[in-house]
Specification:
about 240 residues; alpha+beta; N-terminal domain of MutM-like DNA repair proteins; 5 helices; about 25% helix; elongated; DNA-binding
DNA sequence: CCCGGTGTTACAAC
DNA sequence: GGTTGTAACACCGG
């Protein structure tokens, strides 16, 4: 159930296995040769947006939890995991997820400037990418993983509400200053998401996502699947400006 | 015919 | 019953 901040939490929690050797590995289908993992030592954990990577000397494993994926650490569910790793000091399990072997360096595949929660995140590069898409809608670009890796539907809705931008606004019609504000708010909210998630108070802080009434104007929110992404938007006509 | 873009569908688990 | 997400296709226009 993972937008970027959840993957950061996973990465931090997995650190206890960094530098540890895999004693045994299991999976719930025959699409993975888990013998490749056995005896291997983890050299690090990384994340890029919603992707999680387990790194080894000669290869990396990409895990994507999609919509309904989950993980457990030092406990497990009744069913077999899609990928389960046993270490001397515990276990790391992933369920209902995509698991992919990556042979080459991650740097050739992933643009770290696009990862909202990465130290290398560049808001300036994000603004440049947006300026190349003047006809795109705000509600679509905020889900574009090449621009905002890690942003999902919750982050999208909260950012649009916070910056008072209507989801159907055209990127090319949003003043540059406002566009920069939107870009920066993706990072700001993502780190607040992370903090609140750790405190188990994420939902309590939602102002728009899943809400019925605009907290500013006390009028009902609209709820509609908008844009080419057809994802749910919660928005208020009174305070969210439509740049058309 | 290929290529990029768009649209539809499938899948998953709570 | 709805969905914190992508990927695999089909289709279309250039």
């Amino acid at each position: 159930m993972p937008e970027g901040p959840i993957i950061v939490i996973l990465k931090e929690a997995a650190e206890q296995f960094n530098g540890k050797k895999i004693i045994a590995a299991v999976n719930d289908n025959h699409k993975l040769d888990t013998s490749l993992f056995e005896g291997q030592t983890v050299t690090g954990f990384k994340s890029h947006g919603k992707n999680f990577f387990i790194c080894f000397k000669h290869f990396n494993v990409r895990i994507h939890l999609m919509m309904f994926g989950s993980y457990t650490i030092n406990e497990h569910k009744a069913r077999k995991p899609r990928l389960g790793l046993q270490f001397a000091n515990g276990e790391l399990n992933f369920y209902t997820c995509v698991v992919e072997m990556i042979e080459g360096p991650l740097d050739e595949l992933y643009d770290w400037h696009a990862d909202v929660m990465n130290q290398k995140w560049s808001s300036a590069k994000a603004v440049e990418k947006l300026q190349d898409k003047p006809k795109a809608l705000a509600c679509d670009v905020l889900l574009d993983q090449h621009i905002f890796a890690g942003a999902g539907n919750i982050i999208k809705n909260e950012v649009l509400f916070r910056t008072k931008i209507h989801p159907k606004s055209l990127i090319g019609s949003i003043p540059t200053r406002k566009l920069k504000e939107m870009v920066d708010e993706v990072a700001t909210y993502s780190f607040e998401f992370l903090k609140w998630k750790k405190e188990f108070t994420l939902k309590k802080h939602w102002k728009a996502y899943g809400q019925k009434i605009c907290p500013r104007n006390k009028v009902p929110f609209h709820k509609a699947d908008l844009g080419k992404t057809h994802r749910g938007c919660y928005y208020c006509d009174l305070c969210q400006v439509l740049y058309a």
